[in-house]
Amino acid sequence: MERILVVGSTGAGKSTLARAVGLRLDVPYHEMDALYYTGPGWAVNGKLVEEVSALTAGPRWIIDSIGSAEVRDLLWERADTVLWLDYSRRVVMPRVLRRSLRRTLTREPVFGGNRETLAGWFSHEHPAWWAWAQHVGRRQEIERRTGDPRFSPLRTHRFTRPAGAAEWLRTL
Fold it and tell me: CA–CA distance from 48 to each of 18, 53, 72, 117, 126 (Å)?
C-alpha cells in the first residue's frame, strides 16, 4: 500500500481514515477538497488536473476521494489500493450533520478559506444535502469501479461498519 485512495460517501470519514493510514504508513496525505477548492467563493482550481497528475506521479500518496470527474480515472489508474468506507446513510448522515453544524457555528475555515454558513444549509450543494442525494449513486460508482477490469490490479478493502475499519487500522 503506497498509492491509496480512500473512497466513500460524503461524511463517511474518508479524511480521518486517510490521515490515520498516512501517519501509520508514513505515506503523504492529500485532501482532495483542499486541492479542488482553492479560493474564496468556493473557487475551483484551474490547474487541478496538472497538480493531481504531478502528485500521483510520485511513488507514495494517499488521497481521500473517489476523485472529481476530471481526475477520477487518473487516480484509479495510478492507485494500488482502495479503502472503501461503504457505510449506510444511518451512519453517514449524523456525522455530516454534526460536522457541518460545528463548522457553521464556529465559522471554521475550510477549503480555500471558505466557511459553511447558515444560508448554505438551504443550498442543494450543502454537504448535508449532497451526502443524502449522492449516497446511492456514489456507492454504485465505486462498486462499478472496483469491478471494472481496468482497475482489477487494485487491492480493495471494503468496510461496511466503522468498527471494521477501526479494527483493520489497528492491524497496520
Answer: 20, 8, 11, 25, 22
The DSSP secondary-structure symbol of 44 reads: E
Cut 0.90: pTM above it:
yes
- Go through the chain and tell me how many residues it has: 172
For residues 6 and 18, the answer to whether their CB atoms sit within 8 Å is yes
| pLDDT digit string, tens, across residues 48-78 | 999 999 999 999 999 999 988 999 999 999 9
As given in the structure block, the three cell numbers for residue 113 are 478559506
Nearest to 66 by CA among 129, 2, 127, 143: 143
What is the Cα–Cα distance from 168 to 92, expressed in whole angstroms? 19
The amino acid sitting at 154 is: L
Which stretches within the chain are classed as H helix?
14-25, 32-36, 48-56, 72-78, 89-106, 127-147, 162-170
Q: Which residues have C-beta within 8 Å of that of residue 135, sequence separation ≥ 6?
A: 9, 89, 92
Other beta carbons within 10 Å of 71: 24
Q: 73-126 pLDDT, tens per residue?
A: 999 999 999 999 999 999 999 999 999 999 999 999 998 888 898 888 888 888
**What's the DSSP call for residue 88?**
-
